Amino acid sequence: MSQPPGFVKKGEESKVCKLDRAIYGLHQSGREWFFEMHRVLTGIGFTKFEGCNCAYMFKSDTVLILYVDDFVLFSRTSDVSKMVIDILSTHFDVKVLGKTRKLLGVEFEQYKGNVFIHQESYINEVADRYMQYKFPIASLPITKGSVYSKSQCPKSEEELKEISQLPYRNILGCLSFIASRTRPDISYAVNIFSQFQSNPGIFHWNGLLKLLGYVFNTKSLKLKLSCNKAQLVVYSDADFASNRDDRTSVGGQLVMLDNSPIEWRTFKQKCVTLSTMESEFVAMTEATRELIWFDRILIECFEHNVILEKPIQSTLFVDNMATIDFVKSPIENCRSKHIDVKLFFVRDLVFKNAFNLKYFNSKLNLADIFTKPLTKFELEKFVSCIFGNS
Q: Do 212 and 237 fall into the same domain?
């Protein structure tokens, strides 16, 4: 470490300090803090989830989730919570904030046995911060039929100077945070505008402002989190060769625990596919990876009596029969023999009956919202299904 200002040793200004232990702000500090937390928690009786480094169990009564130095405690009774807090207080300076109402920018509400999460306060803050740019109030995150490409990026010095004075990346960062936490309905739009953050054009900027206006207009949307049965349902979809610049496809996935969304994603596929079937297969592969991980967490919860009912076998829904037939059939042909072997772990899992692979009508596939712009009617239908009665 460089010698700190005010403590530079005369005559040895070029020398640096050798640290005996990690301090806040260093690259290694997070890792060292995790090992310290792990040592203390396991020492007082906690057991770490094998599939998740930030989750710990205390017997079968309590689950502790940690993010750096923020703890969230789940327990069956308040007496158990108090006991665990008392134990933690002997090792850390613990500040008890009561029931979780706000955590890492997300607000929590409990109503009639259900938990709702939203970011209305944060959205208001973002809207106030960028009100001067007069974003329009919109009813869609991205207009159906609109096309964004590199051809709309600045081509002259004047255009570059104009766009450089606008907070494109700042607004995009705020919207990306919102999309990843509580707003799956804007995931596709955020992904599209993220592709131009290094060199956005005015057309991209105007589209981003419309997206901000949509988020502000729908700030009251709340994700409903409730679970009556331990069953994962995953939806997968792809939009073949939709990128005008490099002809890659867009993939999307939604993971539901019972009827509650717990993970969603829009992603640009890393390879150029040659057919709709192939692009759907790539998207399915990504969705399967998430399904297997969440499955492992649920099984671990059941084995340690965190949940009392045995998880029901997971289901993956795909809206392309050719993809399903390709996965279930070991026969190769000239149209599919080129597909990378690393993707075939899906076929192996299907043969092992690790999950159910089923067809789902394209018009009802909830992952459709993550792969393409929708009409207002289509969007409202999907929002109603994903957000529940918010």
A: no
DSSP 4: P
Structure confidence by residue, pLDDT tens digits, 269-309 = 998 999 999 999 999 999 999 999 999 999 988 888 888 88
- What the block records as the tokens of 208 is 């981003």
3-state class percentages of the chain: helix first, strand second, coil last, to nearest 5: 40, 20, 40
SS3 189: helix
For residues 333 and 315, which has the higher predicted lDDT (pLDDT)? 315
Q: How far apart are CA 75 and CA 81, in angstroms?
A: 6
Domain that holds residue 175: 120-218
β-strands 102-103, 106-111: how paired?
Answer: antiparallel
Average pLDDT value for residue range 229-250: 93
Rounded Cα–Cα distance for residues 168 and 207 (Å): 11
Q: Round to whole Å and give the CA distance between 223 and 105.
A: 14
Which residues touch 62 (CB under 8 Å, ≥6 apart)? 73, 74, 75, 76, 80, 81, 84
Stated as kind and residue range, the H or E segment containing 390 is none
**Total structural domains in the chain?**
3
CA angle 318, 319, 323 (to 5 degrees): 70
Say if residue 24's pLDDT is above 80. Answer: no
**Per-residue pLDDT tens digits for 341-372:** 776 789 899 999 999 999 999 889 999 999 99
Same domain, 137 and 265: no
Contact status, residue 193 vs residue 215, Cβ threshold 8 Å: no
